[in-house]
Amino acid sequence: MFDYFVYRVYRAYEKKHKGVVNSIFLASLFLFIFQFLILLSIYNFILIFTDGYVSIKNISSKALKIGFVIVAILFAFFYYRHYQKKIHKIEEKYKHHPANRWVKIWMFVVLALFLVFSPILWSFLHKMIQLSFYY
Fold this sequence. Notes:
Helix content is 79%, strand content 0%. The chain has 135 residues and is mostly helical. The chain is globular, with a radius of gyration of 19 Å.
């Protein structure tokens, strides 16, 4: 699934900015951001439905920020190197894939926006569940 995501973002940047930007780097960066949003959404879901019992508040915020930056740089570099070597195989694999007809780039954008706003959704669902127990 993530290979297909990288392929579609890579192809979109190659069409628009051929030779101007490093499309593999941007595709791998968007993959990292997408995966981070998925993990953040899962964390917020767990945090809301456990009423904050499971949280990372015990870790100092400075150490958390430094750790996140280091992990982000390592993952971005890893994805870039991984997909730089593998992009030709991925292009051959997905060049004539049937999903290319109906999966559009805007669908990935909508999914990313859903992941950004999912904490609000999870919080709303949690309040609705709590209210249903009172009545």
